[in-house]
Amino acid sequence: MSEMYQSFEQDFCKSLNSIQKKVSSLPNQSKELKELAITEGVKEISDAEKCLRQMEIELSMMPAASRAQIQSQVRRYREDFEQTKRAFRQEEASYADQKSRETLMGARLDNGFGRPNEHRERLLNTHQVIADQNNRLDEGKRIALEAEGVAIETMNQLKGQRDLLTRSISNNREVGNNLSKGNTLISTMTRRAIQNKLLIIGIVILLLGVMCLLVYMKLR
To answer: How far apart are CA 118 and CA 116, in angstroms?
Structure first.
């Protein structure tokens, strides 16, 4: 396990624990503390998601032998984070509804209950716009995470192909060295065969000369 992974894991657990405490304490807090907690919780959700994504990236770069156990742990982290985020979003939506109702009641009192429907519709439209924007942001984030996952998978495939090419180059180099040694051995054997052939020819010529000399001496 790399030090980078451990660092992101510590930051993620810290942010997740803080969000979970906020979710459990939000219903009992005052309006001012609740608004502050929601603002802090939104930032902590973003930080936790970044840390979790970095952990997944670090996991993809680990050796396959040590990846299985940590992968299940990261999967549990992802499930806990999604569950906590949903609970926080529910509390955030509940606070937004409460705030809208309080604003609507204030608008009715200010206008002597003259035009309540208009103010109610305006607040509901504003709330709907905010909800739509949040949905678009979540969808854009999801698409970005999916694209990042595809990029990581492609990077892993390229890494595997690079390792395969490296092994192929190493094997080709080894084959080339063996061929070079074989050529050197064949050249040495050829040279020795020529030397042996010349030696045999020399011996044959020497024997023929001796025989001729003996015949000549016998005839005389």
So the answer is: 5
- Residue 128: Cβ within 10 Å count: 10
Residue with tokens 């705030």: 99
Integer Cα distance of 22 and 25 in angstroms: 5
pLDDT at residue number 25? 87
Burial 74-96 (b: 16+ CB within 10 A, else e): beebeebbeebbebbbebbeebe
pLDDT tens figures, 18-59: 989 988 888 887 878 888 888 898 899 999 999 988 888 888
Q: How many Cα neighbours within 13 Å face the side chain of 21?
A: 9
CATH of the domain at 104: 1.20.58.400
- Comparing C-alpha atoms, which of 11, 8, 25 is closest to residue 87? 25
Amino acid in position 172: N
Is 104 contained in some domain? yes
